[in-house]
Design a protein that fits this description.
Strand order of the largest sheet: 2-1-3-4-5
Number of strands: 5
CATH class of one domain: Alpha Beta
CATH superfamily of one domain: Glutaredoxin
CATH architecture of one domain: 3-Layer(aba) Sandwich
Helix content: 25-40%
Largest sheet: 5 strands, mixed
CATH topology of one domain: Glutaredoxin
Bound molecules: FE2/S2 (inorganic) cluster
Number of helices: 10
Length: 268
């Protein structure tokens, strides 16, 4: 009997997982109920790889000169025996040089460089939404749909963007300008709802109207403001600063005074 392990689960789609579990439980006489999973939004691409003419093990991928110049610095951060820890920055580097997405061949190249099984790289690339395993638009909009953003209106923001761009989540506009995906919390919950574009900048405190304006400005090449879109400063809230209004005093000890004290000859 083949054992299921976490690796299998990482590459199975929800439907496949249901079927496998149902088959396993049936002989045991248990009621194999369908596993409940979250709604199948098309966020961050598909779960498993399917060979296509543009994305397969033969798709050309070589490090370019710019990447080659950055690799030694990345590798220098990790001891030789733990060089596999460089998998994330190398995947990011590969993605950045390849129009913001990772073909199978790029993941294989990273595995080869780190001398680890390719599956170890696939596991990382399929876990984090920062890695795109299919081509994305010039502006990849990652819209946070986790609870704080959801209760603050992320669904309305998503609907407004979908309507403006005439795409659904997980799709790219025909002109290749925008891809919209829903992702989990990006760590800006205090300024929910928010989106991230191209894994770089955050645009926060959105409403459907400000989100539409933002996307329209990007589409027309107009300058956009990074950060809160409601005029607030950083995470201060709309009422401004309510605490920590003065600069705190230094909390560290006066080390020079301590040294002087310790250097004094001891009294007999
Ligand atoms: S819930 Fe959206 S950034 Fe945290």
């Amino acid at each position: 009997m083949v054992e299921l392990n976490s690796l299998h689960f990482s590459v199975l789609s929800d439907g496949m997982l249901n079927r496998v579990v149902s088959r396993r439980l049936a002989p045991l006489g248990r009621v194999a109920r369908s596993l409940h999973t979250s709604r199948p939004v098309r966020s961050a691409g598909i779960v498993q790889h399917r060979n296509t003419d543009y994305n397969n093990a033969e798709t050309p991928f070589e490090w370019n000169e710019d990447s080659k110049s950055k690799i030694p610095f990345i590798m220098s951060k990790y001891p030789e025996a733990y060089k596999q820890s460089a998998v994330m920055p190398l995947l990011q580097l590969a993605q950045e040089q390849n129009d913001n997405w990772l073909p199978l061949s790029a993941m294989n190249k990273v595995a080869e460089m780190l001398d680890i099984p390719a599956m170890r790289v696939y596991e990382v690339a399929t876990f984090y939404s920062q890695y795109n395993r299919e081509p994305v638009g010039k502006f990849h909009i990652q819209l946070c749909g986790t609870t704080p953003c959801m209760v603050c209106g992320s669904e309305k923001v998503s609907e407004a963007i979908q309507k403006l761009l005439n795409i659904k989540q997980g799709e790219t506009t025909k002109d290749g300008m925008f891809t919209l995906t829903e992702v989990e919390c990006l760590g800006a919950c205090a300024n929910a709802p928010m989106i991230q574009i191209n894994n770089k900048e955050f645009y926060e405190n959105l409403t459907p109207e400000t989100a539409v304006k933002l996307v329209d400005d990007l589409r027309n090449g107009r300058a956009v403001q990074v950060g809160p879109q409601n005029g607030q400063k950083n995470c201060e809230g709309i009422q401004g600063k309510t605490s920590l209004k003065t600069n705190p005093k230094p909390v560290c000890r006066d080390l020079d005074a301590l040294k002087a004290e310790l250097s004094k000859p001891k009294q007999q």
